[in-house]
Automatic annotation (TrEMBL):
This is ABC transporter permease. InterPro entries: BP-dependent_transpt_permease (IPR050366), MetI-like (IPR000515), MetI-like_sf (IPR035906). The keyword Transmembrane helix applies. It comes from Vibrio tritonius. PANTHER family: OLIGOPEPTIDE TRANSPORT SYSTEM PERMEASE PROTEIN APPC, PEPTIDE ABC TRANSPORTER PERMEASE PROTEIN.
Length: 281
């Protein structure tokens, strides 16, 4: 009897935990989106202004996240840096998913010879580690916002292509596509109106993963000094420039590192939620 009661209690608790996680992930993602949009206008101090004589200052009522290695307000710098981290990753992930999906649709509806060429080019690109490619491109051509976006797209569009291509290839064999062909619909119509809507949900889930990967890539480049350049900064840059406070456990170092972690965790939870809802259907 006690075992049955325990199982019943567990079954009642688990849906509540899932709902809490879903709510937490949604609130977390919404929070970072709001910070990215309105953060610079909410910053209490000018992002480059030295406001304290104390470097790596502790959390206080005056400086809610302490001060950095020059005595600047760390909260203000995080509020501004989040826009670069979220903005660049969002643009790059949207472009990666769009480019990968469109090329996948093109490959599916193209003649076999064209499809083979596309697949071989994608195989060549996907065989190069994205971080290695990014390091070579940025080290060779310098660092700028357009180049960082292009580098991220070049590194992650092939992966988006692979996901979209496998989904589109399966849909291309479905009966509704054959019916559209018999009706005399063009290849472009079939790709856009028939195949794309039926692969959109998995592609959106993959888009979330691309976003997380690109956040980590751009933060890693900034930590190495190859990302956003001073006087601008993203969250990875803040970690790098305050690395001297590691031995002190300075908030100037821990806060941006935790921000990167919370951003990726929040997006991952939302992706998991989308995938679970799709599976339940």
């Amino acid at each position: 009897m006690s075992t049955t009661a325990a199982n019943s209690h567990t079954s009642n608790v688990w849906p509540v935990i899932k709902k809490l996680l879903m709510s937490f992930s949604s609130v977390l993602c919404l929070f970072w989106l709001v910070v990215a949009i309105f953060g610079p206008s909410m910053a209490p101090h000018n992002v480059g202004q030295v406001v304290s004589d104390q470097i790596f200052g502790p959390i206080s009522s005056q400086f809610l996240l302490g001060t950095d290695y020059l005595g600047r307000d760390n909260l203000s710098r995080i509020l501004v840096a989040t826009r670069y981290t979220v903005g660049l990753a969002l643009v790059a992930s949207v472009l990666s998913s769009m480019v990968g999906t469109l090329i996948a649709l093109l490959a599916v509806i193209s003649p076999k010879s064209v499809e083979v060429v596309i697949l071989r080019v994608i195989d060549a690109l996907i065989s190069i580690p994205s971080k290695m490619m990014a390091l070579v491109i940025v080290a060779g051509f310098g660092s700028s916002v357009p180049l960082l976006i292009m580098t991220a797209v070049l590194g992650y569009a092939p992966g988006a292509f692979r996901i979209a291509y496998s989904l589109a290839l399966n849909q291309n064999e479905m009966e509704y596509v054959k019916v559209a062909m018999i009706r005399g619909e063009g290849r472009l119509y079939i790709a856009i109106r028939e195949i794309l809507p039926n692969i959109l949900n998995p592609v959106l889930a993959d888009f979330g993963l691309r976003f997380v990967f690109i956040v980590l890539l751009l933060s890693g480049l900034s930590f190495l000094g190859l990302g956003i350049q001073p006087p601008n900064a993203d969250l990875g840059s803040l970690v790098r420039e305050n690395i001297g406070g590691l031995s002190q456990g300075a908030p100037a170092l821990l806060a941006p590192a935790c921000a990167i972690g919370l951003l990726t965790v929040g997006v991952n939870l939302v992706i998991d939620r989308i995938s679970r809802q799709r599976n339940e259907r």
